């Protein structure tokens, strides 16, 4: 059984909400072997416009599953988040199995065996790089990088920070503001 820690922001976590989230998250239990202690952290938040956000994180050794969904119906958001987590698990399981089959090694599967139909579904969701670009990073500050990003019409922009001389990334957030990721 997956142990679920639920935290609410601007909302009281009632017994009904707690039970619903725990029941939905525990449907993922079938993907984990019995000897694993699995924890899930659920964060639910409501905004003034009655929109709600559900975020569930399942930290594990070597892998962190995370999904979030915004919806005006909290229960619909929970369903959608659990579906996203299930897709992530199936993708990861397929990726691991493919890697070990290619290496022709005996391995211990992180997840219980899924039927062939589910494996075929996850093959359709395979991640493929369809385009590759190469460019020289120009030294600039974050403000100039944001201007460049907006001129290109992109959601992110990679640049060399003029002051720290390290690679940084600016990105446009869902709320329309900007974020900065700095590397060491």
UniProtKB/TrEMBL annotation:
An example Gene Ontology biological process: negative regulation of translational elongation
One term under GO cellular component: cytosolic small ribosomal subunit
Alphabetic keyword roster: Cytoplasm, Translation regulation
InterPro entries: HPF/YfiA_ribosome-assoc, HPF_long/plastid, RHF-like, RHF/RaiA, Ribosom_S30AE_C, Ribosom_S30AE_C_sf
Main location: cytoplasm
Gene Ontology molecular-function annotations: ribosomal small subunit binding
KW Cytoplasm (keyword) present: yes
Start and end residues of each Sigma 54 modulation/S30EA ribosomal protein C-terminal domain: 125-180
Compartments, as annotated in UniProt: Cytoplasm
SUPFAM superfamilies according to UniProt: Ribosome binding protein Y (YfiA homologue)
CDD domains in the record: RaiA
Keyword Cytoplasm in record: yes
A Pfam family the protein falls into: Ribosomal_S30AE
Subunit structure: Interacts with 100S ribosomes.
HAMAP family associated with the record: HPF (MF_00839)
Function: Required for dimerization of active 70S ribosomes into 100S ribosomes in stationary phase; 100S ribosomes are translationally inactive and sometimes present during exponential growth.
Similarity remark: Belongs to the HPF/YfiA ribosome-associated protein family. Long HPF subfamily.
Protein name stated in the entry: Ribosome hibernation promoting factor
Organism the protein comes from: Nosocomiicoccus ampullae
Encoding gene (name): hpf
């Amino acid at each position: 059984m997956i142990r679920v820690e639920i935290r609410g922001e601007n909302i009281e976590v009632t017994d009904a909400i707690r039970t619903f989230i725990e029941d939905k998250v525990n449907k993922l239990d079938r993907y984990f072997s019995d000897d694993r202690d699995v924890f899930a952290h659920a964060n639910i938040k409501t905004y003034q416009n009655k929109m709600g956000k559900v975020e569930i994180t399942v930290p594990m050794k070597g892998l962190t599953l995370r999904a979030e969904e915004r919806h005006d119906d909290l229960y619909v958001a929970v369903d959608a988040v659990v579906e996203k987590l299930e897709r992530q698990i199936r993708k990861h399981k397929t990726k691991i199995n493919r890697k070990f089959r290619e290496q022709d090694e005996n391995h211990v599967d992180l997840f219980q065996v899924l039927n062939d139909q589910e494996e075929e579904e996850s093959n359709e969701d395979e991640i493929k790089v369809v385009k590759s670009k190469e460019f020289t990073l120009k030294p600039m500050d974050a403000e100039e990088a944001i201007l460049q990003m907006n001129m290109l019409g992109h959601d992110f922009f990679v640049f060399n920070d003029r002051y720290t001389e390290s690679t940084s990334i600016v990105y446009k957030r869902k709320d329309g503001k900007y974020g900065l990721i700095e590397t060491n």
